[in-house]
């Protein structure tokens, strides 16, 4: 016969704890930093406390922890003691084999683990079971709750977190809501969650009904991916599995849910699958695919459809193109403004002060004026004339003459510049000293935003949270906020694998190397391009706003973008300092 193993976590309803109140469901704080399976355990300090498992199979193993405060225990199978031991140790050890029984006949058995000392804990149980006939092999096919092979009736909602298989879960609180799967196989296992707010689950195979209690008194926390039910005594024909919410709460809540269904098939040859001819599931485990082969195949995440993801990408690309078009318009406007300024004269042009270049010879701009004509002077003797005898016997009379027509225009009187008075200096200093340099202001904000983005990305590696998970999410108690299905793709690249924080850190570090240029970048003119900086800040703002720690960096990046756009609108340019021009490198 074909053998396979099943793992039963400590929170599974397949384990019955007694007496009531003797066992404690550990919280996340109790297992913090310890490698317990499923991050959970059940512990007891009461002598005589028991953990009972009814199963069909050939063997069973109980795993737990060793601690200095723990004591002894025994294991009985079908009323016979088969093992005993102690879980006392000098330090804390987890996932230790406490007791086991093997070589049992394949059939129904009852195993009871009993604490006979001062305390112990139970982590999980492994079952060994068989299906099929001698010489056959087992293949398993996993149907995720989002698989099209599963049919839902009634009112069901979905939840998406990394605690669930493929980050998806279907749940309902409506009485009579059901999920069904038609399959061909020799065994089946149903997985879901266990929580105090859950109701009983009614599971039937080919009309044979079983009631599963998912909210026993020994449960105080949410346990995801927990085995709720399994059957291994089926023949190789087609079967119908139906999971129903009967509305029986038993002091619990109204919820039931479904995470996945695993079908086990026995076949004589490895190439034959008992599931052939059925609709292909949309999600498969890494154990087998629909054909029953042993090759691994990844399962797609349910959440945003392909069309929705394409729409988001197109929208982001269009937004970036619009932004670039706006920046290009502002740059073209700036160039035209500078052209007009260069074409306009720097000083007034007139006949008396023509416009000159540094290498121009003087050429009057105004037409040459004709020489003035002077009328004949009418001479008259002045009273201050010098007598002819003054120079001897010269007969020429030396006289001074008065003319009614000026010979040349008067020469203006020039004065030396004077130092302004104290009153004038006070008026001058009260005026504004200068204008704000917007691109330098934007640079300082950009450096602040990028430094914060690096810090936020680092912490996002350890405390992972999609910031917008509350949009369309469902608040459950306990269990917390369950994000909407549309958030699955972001949870995968932020929570499950911190891809977005890593990309954001790289972008932020590059912006810092541009704004406070490294020696290798000083010689590149692109580092003085405000358009290039705006594009980098757009990407930084987009990546930062997706995860919890980066929202402030996204806000500051947007402010820096607006300041750079203002600088370009005013025609500002980023020039190299005069002392550094032509030096490059470490200048």
UniProtKB/TrEMBL annotation:
* UniProt xrefs under InterPro entries: DUF7727
The transmembrane segments are 308-332, 441-463, 483-510, 530-548, 554-571
Region (Disordered): which ranges?
Answer: 279-301
Provide an example Pfam family for this protein. DUF7727
Start and end residues of each DUF7727 domain: 433-572
Matching CDD domains: TM_EGFR-like
Q: Keyword set for this entry?
A: Membrane, Transmembrane, Transmembrane helix
Compositional bias of type Low complexity: which residue ranges? 285-298
Q: Which domain of life is it from?
A: Eukaryota
Q: What protein name does the entry list?
A: DUF7727 domain-containing protein
Lineage here is: Eukaryota, Fungi, Dikarya, Basidiomycota, Agaricomycotina
């Amino acid at each position: 016969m074909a053998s396979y193993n099943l793992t039963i976590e400590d929170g599974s309803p397949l384990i019955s704890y007694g007496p009531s109140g003797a066992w404690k469901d550990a919280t996340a704080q109790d297992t913090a930093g310890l490698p317990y399976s499923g991050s959970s355990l059940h512990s007891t300090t009461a002598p005589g406390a028991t953990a009972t498992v009814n199963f069909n199979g050939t063997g069973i193993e109980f795993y737990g922890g060793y601690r200095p405060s723990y004591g002894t225990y025994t294991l009985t199978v079908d009323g016979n003691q088969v093992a005993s031991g102690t879980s006392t140790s000098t330090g804390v050890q987890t996932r230790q084999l406490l007791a086991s029984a093997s070589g049992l006949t394949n059939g129904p058995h009852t195993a009871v683990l009993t604490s006979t000392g001062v305390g112990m804990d139970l982590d999980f149980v492994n079952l060994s079971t068989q299906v099929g006939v001698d010489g056959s092999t087992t293949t398993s096919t996993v149907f995720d709750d989002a698989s099209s092979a599963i049919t839902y009736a009634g009112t069901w909602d979905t939840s998406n977190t990394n605690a669930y298989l493929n980050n998806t879960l279907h749940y309902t609180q409506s009485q009579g809501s059901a999920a069904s799967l038609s399959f061909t196989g020799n065994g089946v296992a149903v997985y879901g969650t266990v929580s105090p707010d859950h109701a009983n689950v009614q599971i039937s195979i080919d009309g044979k009904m079983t009631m599963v209690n998912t909210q026993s008194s020994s449960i105080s926390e949410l346990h995801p991916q927990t085995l709720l039910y399994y059957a291994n005594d089926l023949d190789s024909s087609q079967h119908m599995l139906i999971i129903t919410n009967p509305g029986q709460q038993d002091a619990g809540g109204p919820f039931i849910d479904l995470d996945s269904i695993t079908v086990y098939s026995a076949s004589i040859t490895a190439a034959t699958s008992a599931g052939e001819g059925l609709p292909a599931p949309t999600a498969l485990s890494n154990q087998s695919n629909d054909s029953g082969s042993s090759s691994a195949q990844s399962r797609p995440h349910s959440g945003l459809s392909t069309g929705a993801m394409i729409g988001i990408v197109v929208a982001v690309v269009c937004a970036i193109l619009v932004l670039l078009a706006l920046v290009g318009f502002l740059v073209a406007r700036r160039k035209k403004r500078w052209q007009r300024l260069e074409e306009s004269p720097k000083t007034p042009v007139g006949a008396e002060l023509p416009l000159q270049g540094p290498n121009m010879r003087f050429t009057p701009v105004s037409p040459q004026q004709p020489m003035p004509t002077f009328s004949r002077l009418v001479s008259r003797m002045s009273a201050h004339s010098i007598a002819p005898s003054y120079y001897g016997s010269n007969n020429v009379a030396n006289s001074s003459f008065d003319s009614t027509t000026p010979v040349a225009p008067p020469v203006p009187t020039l004065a030396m510049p004077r130092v302004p008075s104290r009153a004038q200096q006070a008026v001058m200093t009260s005026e504004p000293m200068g204008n704000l340099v917007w691109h330098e202001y934007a640079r300082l904000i950009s450096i602040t935003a990028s430094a914060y983005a690096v810090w936020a990305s680092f912490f996002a590696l350890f405390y992972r949270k999609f910031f917008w998970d509350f949009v369309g999410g469902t608040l459950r108690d306990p269990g917390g906020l369950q994000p909407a299905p549309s958030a699955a793709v972001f949870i995968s690249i932020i929570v499950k694998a911190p891809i977005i924080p890593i990309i954001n850190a790289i972008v932020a570090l590059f912006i810092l190397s541009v704004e406070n240029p490294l020696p290798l970048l000083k010689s590149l003119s692109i580092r003085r391009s405000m358009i290039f900086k705006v594009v980098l800040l757009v990407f930084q703002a987009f990546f930062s706003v997706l995860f919890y720690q980066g929202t402030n960096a996204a806000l500051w990046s947007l402010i820096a973008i607006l300041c750079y756009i203002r600088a370009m609108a005013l025609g500002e340019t980023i020039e190299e300092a005069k002392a550094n021009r032509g030096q490059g490198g470490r200048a």
